[in-house]
Amino acid sequence: QVQLVESGGGLVQAGGSLRLSCVASGRTFRSYAMGWFRQVPGKERELVAAISWSGGSAIYADSVKGRFTISRDNAKNTVYLQMNSLKPEDTAVYYCAVSTKWPTDATRDYGYWGQGTQVTVSS
Predict the structure, then answer these.
(1) FRET pair for 103, CA 20 to 30 Å: which of 8, 35, 49, 57?
(2) How far apart are CA 26 and CA 112, in angstroms?
(3) DSSP label of 99
(4) Which residues contact 23 (CB under 8 A, 6 or more apart)?
(5) What is the DSSP string of 40-86?
(6) pLDDT tens per residue across span 23-81
């Protein structure tokens, strides 16, 4: 069992930055790939970025490449999402999740979802 708690969301102006954190419980954190997803009402949850168990490789959605950076600290059981040059279309609830598969960008391969953190980007 893995429990995930996201934090770091908030309201920011377009062009600004936020850093999201996701803390995982359990001693097997370093065994999992980690992903950040986002969802807006009426749309499916989509992968934003994912990172391998070692942190050595990452996947990004085309819409965030060059602006967002995913990283992890296995000693702290934490995965981060640094979001720069934010746009109004980045507004969503952001979730983290774990996967035993890598590489994968399929939502169905991720589980143990956190409660989410709201990111709102004003124009």
Answers:
(1) 8
(2) 12
(3) E
(4) 4, 5, 7, 76, 77, 78
(5) -TTS--EEEEEE-TTSS-EEE-TTTTTTEEEEEEGGGTEEEEEE-S-
(6) 999 768 888 999 999 999 999 999 999 999 999 999 999 999 999 999 999 999 999 99
